[in-house]
Amino acid sequence: AVNAGRTVNATGGYAIYGVAKTSAITATINGTVTATGNAVTLDSRFGPDGGSTTVNGSGRIASTGAAGVWLLNDIGTTTLDGIDGGISGVNYGVLINTNGTYSGAAGSDVNIGLVTRLGAVTSAGHGIYVDQAANGAGDGDIAMHVGTVTAGSGFGIRALGWTGDTSISSTGAVTSTGSTGIYATTTTGNIDITGEGTGTVVGNGDDGIVADARFGPDGGNVAIHDFVRVAGADVGVWALADTGTVTIDNIGAIAGG
Predict the structure, then answer these.
(1) Averaged pLDDT score across all residues of the chain
(2) Whose CA, among 107, 140, 180, 188, lies 20 to 30 Å from 164?
(3) How many CA atoms lie within 13 A of 26 on its CB side?
(4) DSSP 8-state class, residue 64
(5) Three-state DSSP class for 67?
(6) pLDDT > 60? residue 100
(7) What single-letter DSSP state applies at residue 134?
């Protein structure tokens, strides 16, 4: 466990880098963590029963050359909560890989902002990128409660799920300058994306919101709802499913190119 209550500044690489095989790793950030490399990296992939990874606190995390937060594991739960001072990075604001490295290992649940909604996330690349599908075994749910997410060339939010459900709650502005605002995929799970009545999504480089549940024979339902506005350079809202129900409801304005 790491408890950073003051300032941690790394001018030549990573600021906080925690590695474990089977145990849990927790970093509580109540101060400021800055780095030229990844600011906070927690990695528990190296055992077949790898533990959980958790980053929480009320502080600020920033990288001037890489990812703000990078969390990796095989089967343990991934938790990112609070960080009220915000998270910023260059290629990624937040990058989470829970897809497993061992044969048959499956990423477990990803919980972002479920206790305390995540602080603002900014990146010149991707804002929040969650990858649970690289080895085709990820079977946990992805759930995130976020506020403002600002991305440059990449996705505002990318949730790449596998068999579990994906839910995204965004109460602020999710914006991508060069790509899609929110892009969520799953094979057999459901996708629910809500703005809670206050959120907006803009994809200035591609689409506003894309939710795709077509990749399994038993693909789930897709619901996109309760946004003030959703806009894309190409398509405003694009929802796709094989056998599930598609619901688009209570969106004040939808605009496409």
Answers:
(1) 90
(2) 180
(3) 8
(4) S
(5) strand
(6) no
(7) T
Higher pLDDT, 49 or 199: 199
Say if residues 253 and 224 touch (Cβ distance below 8 Å): no
Both structure tokens of 179: 């790509």
DSSP 118: B
Q: How many CA atoms lie within 13 A of 239 on its CB side?
A: 19
**pLDDT computed for residue 10 by the predictor:** 77
Question: What gap in Å lies between CA 12 and CA 172, rounded to an integer?
Answer: 34
State the pLDDT at residue 35: 96
C-alpha to C-alpha distance for 191 and 239, rounded to whole angstroms: 10
- In three-state secondary structure terms, 61 is strand
Q: Which amino acid is at 61?
A: I
- Asked if residue 195 lies in contact with residue 223, where contact means CB atoms within 8 angstroms, the answer is no
d(CA 97, CA 75): 11
**How many Cβ atoms are within 10 Å of 138's Cβ, its own excluded?**
28
H helix intervals, the chain: none
Answer yes or no: are the C-beta atoms of 48 and 73 closer than 8 Å: no
Q: Using 50, 70 and 90 to split pLDDT, how confident is the model at 66?
A: very high
The whole-angstrom separation of Cα 38 and Cα 17 is: 8
Say what the pLDDT of residue 81 is: 98
Cα 112–chain centre separation: 7
